[in-house]
Amino acid sequence: MTGLVVIGASYAGIQGALSARDAGYAEPITVVADEAWLPYQRPPLSKDFLTELATEESLVLRDKAFFDNKGIDLILGVRATDIDRQSRKILLGGHSALSFDKLLIGTGSHARKLAVPGADLGGVRYLRTMQDAIELKASLRDASEIVVVGGGFIGLEVAASAGKLGKKVTVLESSSRLLERAVSPVVSEFLLDMHLQHGVDVMLGETVVSINGQNGRVTSVSCGNSARLQADLILVGVGGLPNDQIAKDAGLDCSNGIAVDDHGRSSDPDIFAAGDCATHYNTFARDWLRLESVQNAQDQAKAAGLAIAGGTGPYDSVPRFWSDQYDAKLQIVGISRNFDDQAIRGSIEDGKFSVFYYRQGRLIAVDSVNRSGDQMAARRMIAGGISPSPDQIRDASFDLKSLLKSANGVGV
Amino acid sequence: MFKVNFVRQDGTACVIEIGSGVSVMLAAVRNGISGIDGECGGCLDCATCHIYVDDAQINALPSPDAEELELLGSVKAPRKPNSRLSCQLKSPFPIETLNVHIPEVQS
């Protein structure tokens, strides 16, 4: 069998297969995934799935009907181990092989492991996959004292979920503020207050020195300041690393992810990559980025799917992210790092505000908390290269959407 | 069983049965109806599941809440009186077969 082979039933992998098919790709398409589940929604794994508002069944993203309708073969529970670029084959578990004309790698990312003594004790958990979430949910039921290592998206979302379940939760963050890599100090401060108000303890500038246990199970965490926290469950959320080993082994250019152009094409013109496993030059951030988000996975895979089908539609979306914690809906558009000015719209006290970030007078990113209208307008402004002045942002009576209409007469 | 009739830009249509509690967005994504992305999974974060409900049926559906209206205010395809976010339309409907039209572009 030839045609398109996709490694990974991820958001990126499936979207790439779908976009190729929709763009007229008529050859066979086969998706191979090491996980046993039909493609599933990942963002709820740290939220509604843990609090039992969502189930394995409700999180199905692509049904069997999808694969039948689109003429896509799905092979689940089989790991692709090698790419043989000479003979245009991928090897499956070392025994069988699949030939390809075009290959799309959508292998995602894995959790960075905590490298301290005791990190392999029972009760130390990570969250990335459905299997991780099933195990974490089961552990949460019996746990009473939970330590979350890492104040990033996953750590904070799990902290909020565990708090909702009535558990005692402590978040340890090694930097001086929460969500440091994604938001500015204003938003970090808001999130800190919110978690504290909900009864979650947060220790900033705090590192884990060792994890201690008894009979193979975690019992406490020793911190850098010599404090010792009792714990019967530890969730580690200290970042992700790309699943790019298979590409490295095949000699494809990789640097914190598989390097791809704006069509998702790797250094081999017939091999594409998209999503968490890939790194690309982002025209909005003006830098190479490896993004872990649904938006990036889907939009990058759309560009790859089009290119695989012989079309063209480069990936040029503005990056966007979201996180739901308690009653706060945090939405982010753009990449705010390196900002040199900011303006706040709305009220931080009321928990409804947006922070607009500038670099050299150019609007580069906006974080919104419970201000979807700002966020939606900001998306189009950044995509269209429109920068309202900081004074316009601070002026509640100024209509942001008026800028979108006036830009070219018909809206951006 | 309730059904959704998805009408594409080119006028072709596809009818899908929809289980109880499942949104129109999720039914579209699960079945491979292109043109409805549903990036956020239905938590009102992304506005990538915009659709137009058949004019004759729009008033039979529960009205959109404030958050949905806020997002609809900035969808990329033209916003019309019958614009909705399909993640907020869940079976069972007051109509046996809901007719929805897919816009040219999502946000």
Short description:
With about 400 residues, chain A is an alpha/beta fold. Helices cover about 25% and strands about 30% of the residues of chain A.
Structure description:
The complex is a heterodimer of chains A (412) and B (107). By secondary structure, chain A is of the alpha/beta class. Chain A has 3 domains: 4-42 and 59-110 and 240-308, FAD/NAD(P)-binding domain; 113-236, FAD/NAD(P)-binding domain (3-Layer(bba) Sandwich), CATH 3.50.50; 327-408, FAD/NAD-linked reductase, C-terminal dimerisation domain (Enolase-like, domain 1). Chain A is 25% helix and 30% strand. Chain A contains 10 helices and 26 strands. In chain A, the strands form 7 sheets. Chain A has a 5-stranded parallel β-sheet. A 5-stranded parallel β-sheet of chain A has the order 9-16-10-11-12, with helices on one face. In chain A, a hairpin with a 3-residue loop joins strand 5 and strand 6 (96-99). In chain A, helix 1 packs parallel to helix 7 and helix 8 packs parallel to helix 10. Chain A starts with a strand and ends with a helix. Chain B is α+β, with helices and mostly antiparallel strands. Chain B has one domain (2-91): Ubiquitin-like (UB roll), CATH 3.10.20. Helix content of chain B is 14%, strand content 22%. Chain B is built from 2 helices and 5 strands; from the N terminus they run E-E-H-E-H-E-E. Chain B has a 5-stranded mixed β-sheet. The A-B interface holds A 18, 22, 41, 43-44, 58, 60-63, 65-66, 69-70, 294-295, 298, 320, 322, 324, 329, 331, 372-373, 376-377, 379-380, 401 and B 21, 29-32, 34, 37, 39-41, 43-47, 67, 70-71, 73-76, 107.
